[in-house]
Amino acid sequence: MSSITSILLCFVCSGVASAQLFSAGIKGGIPLTDPFADVTLPGFFTPGQTVHSYSSSKKFVAGGMIEFHLPFGLSVEADGLYHPSRLTVVTTNAGSPATGKLSTNYINWEIPVVAKYRFLHTPLIKPYVEAGVNIRVLEEPLDGYMSSKGVAAGGGVEFKLSHLRVSPEIRYTYWGGDSSSAFPARSNRNQAELLLGVSF
């Protein structure tokens, strides 16, 4: 082994050994966009019928996070986020003043896995950018309708408070298209969230 290779190997190993390799914590926040688009569609079975569907509540996002820290400001983070949603469907028949309205709550989970890069290595403040994939586990009947895979990107700032890492961030996910049209709603493929992570 050459002397240059030995020096590089010692440098990398010392950087890994001096850094905390693993951190875990909680992450939560609020969606900045709705999971369902606000659309009016023709009815499936009744002529002249229209179906207006929309998200009636943005609610919240909350869950846990783990992060593996690498040398040179790099890390890999995986989250498990509980993301409930609420869909309201209003049905109107032509020539009739009567309407039907139904609101349903759905339980969904998101599992984003992102690579992060901290580009300012100060003791207390570290801005970062991130990019990766987002996978969601959907409740029926959404699991046969909405896409379960997307790409994610975002950025934030990490603050060091004693033994805690506090990281507010904005994360954007672009979801794949709906896998079926046989549902009285349309998903919003553009999703943005304001999140706050606390880890140790």
Describe this structure in words.
With 200 residues, the protein is mainly beta. The chain contains one helix and twelve strands. Helices cover 8% and strands 58% of the residues. An eight-stranded antiparallel beta barrel has the order 1-4-5-8-9-10-11-12. The chain has a four-stranded antiparallel beta sheet with strand order 2-3-6-7, with no helix packed on it. The longest helix has 16 residues, at 3-18. It is elongated, with a radius of gyration of 22 Å. Residues 3-19 have low confidence and may be disordered.
DSSP E strands, number:
12
- Contiguous runs where pLDDT drops below 50 for at least 5 residues: 3-19
What's the total helix number? 1
Approximately how much beta-strand content do the residues carry?
Answer: over 45%
Helix content: under 10%
What characteristics describe this protein?
200 residues; mainly beta; Porin; four-stranded antiparallel sheet; 1 helix; disordered N terminus
Topology:
Blueprint: H1 3-18, E1 22-31, E2 39-42, E3 49-57, E4 61-69, E5 74-82, E6 85-93, E7 99-106, E8 109-118, E9 125-137, E10 149-161, E11 164-175, E12 190-199
Antiparallel strand pairs: 1-4, 1-12, 2-3, 3-6, 4-5, 5-8, 6-7, 8-9, 9-10, 10-11, 11-12
Task: Tell me briefly what this model is.
This protein has one helix spanning 3-18, and strands at residues 22-31, 39-42, 49-57, 61-69, 74-82, 85-93, 99-106, 109-118, 125-137, 149-161, 164-175, 190-199. It has 200 residues and is mostly beta strands. The radius of gyration is 22 Å and the shape is elongated.
